[in-house]
Prior knowledge:
The complex is a heterodimer.
Chain A: H1 5-11, H2 17-32, E1 38-40, E2 44-46, H3 51-67, E3 76-78, H4 95-110, E4 135-136, H5 139-149, H6 158-167, E5 169-171, E6 185-189, H7 196-209, E7 215-218, H8 225-237, E8 245-246, H9 251-255, E9 264-267, H10 269-278, E10 288-296, H11 298-308, E11 317-321, H12 323-331, H13 335-341, E12 344-347, E13 362-365, H14 368-376, E14 381-384, H15 387-394
Parallel strand pairs in A: 2-3, 2-4, 6-7, 6-9, 7-8, 10-11, 10-13, 11-12, 13-14
Antiparallel strand pairs in A: 1-5
Helix pairs in contact in A: 2-6, 3-4, 5-8, 7-8, 7-10, 11-13
Chain B: E1 2-4, E2 6-9, E3 12-19, E4 53-56, H1 65-74, E5 81-84, H2 89-97, E6 102-104, E7 116-120, E8 123-127
Amino acid sequence: MLLTREEQRILDGEEGPGKQKAMEILAALGKIYDASRLFPVKSVQVAGVSYSNLGDAGLEFLEELAATGVKATVPAMLNPAGMDLLNWKKLGVPKEFAEKQLEVINAYKKMGIRATCTCTPYLIGVKPEYGQHLAWSESSAVTYINSAVGARTNREGGPSALAAAIIGKTPYYGLHLKKNRKPQLLVNVKTDIERISDFGALGYWIGKNFPGKIPLITGIPSATVDELKSLSASIVTYGGPPLFHIEGITPEALKGIYPKPEEKIVVDEEEIKDARAGITDETGKVDFVAIGCPHASLEEIKFISELLRGKRVEVETWITTSRRVMEMAKRRGYLKAINKAGAKVVPDTCMAVAPLKGRFHVMATNSAKACYYGRGSNKFKTLLCTTEECMSIATGGKR
Amino acid sequence: MRARGRVIKSGEAEGKALVSKEPISFYGGVDPKTGVVTEKKHPLKGKSVAGKVLVFPNGKGSTVGSYIIYRLKKNRKAPVAIVNEESEPIVATGAIISDIPMIDHVHISKIKNGDLVKIKGEVIAWKSSH
């Protein structure tokens, strides 16, 4: 990879050890992926925030890097943390964990990175545009912004995103190049995909059966932001690449800039049923209902508030979201019914990164992605339901 | 024997080779406190990477692996150098943030466990310790 004179100076350490380290990471990645050069990015989203993933090693690295005085040179924001940063006590987070988690956040803040702590920055005013180049990390956010918006980013690791934030650039390879964004598999959907959980099940089926292949999906007449966010999260979690196209919906498909792929498959009612069965365990009694993976939007919170009005939850129920969306929901009065019902709106964190192992055993959720992390790190049994079914279970009713 | 590789993290190091034909996942596969490989059924299971020139085809697993390498370094249990056939971002990033010399594009099948290995820039030299 060719470096400019300015980039070479940074690599040689002439702007200090922090920037040097960042440039070393970018230069090595450029070399590994055979990038031609570094390319400026409009924004960066940094994963590697939860202390339960970082551990003391990660925390120490971040603190030492922050101590060199480096700062982000482009808008940069954080992925969810391991807890609600303000009300962690109420949610039963141990003090030792909370202290370490806050140290992680402070190290990032010192480097000028905004503690938005969300996997849906595109719902809180960070609105990349078609064709813009970014360096984002969190898999669902990367997939959404590539697919639904047509911005361009690879799926960055924590340190490479941080390096991109400091330098303001990323190696030019992979999904930054148009030639690598072509669909490779035509998925003809012949059944109704209408709910958030349907889109999750579809993503599971495509990702699991055709890992690494960029799909062009046909046969879906419309999709909301929340539905595209659900598909984004599940397709990449279960093995797909962080990009899909939907005929008539996503911008690159609308522009018709790519040829139709030769390999074709059909998804019918049977496949979606199989997918739902694949992420649903034979369960005991549900003791945890989780909505908000990826983080719930204002519309989802409004819908849940309508479902819970005048009811009372009998099962621990979390709706995870960004702090910004929670505050908007509060101003619009959506939180009253939810709080009154005894459900919890939890900001800054989610069920995939909060240390919940052992606290719950059977989780009902509308998110196919949450099923993966629930089963994996938290050892839950999982149940994929619609949002209404989740709230029905939460309030003591049947599915 | 001598060969030229591709520099991922430049530096000089010397040590005995610990060679794995299988990829290594540092997160969940190597104990950051002891440097001992813990992954079930791994050919290096039970062996320590500490102070060794660690030779393996490529990294695998979670990106948290980069921080595990950093933690090994802090605990003085890190390898003195890393040699890969084809490096990937997890181990490369780990080597960079931990200041561990690393090269790739080396035919690792020629290096045997226990060989004395020297690395300087892109050059790797090794000889049998017997």
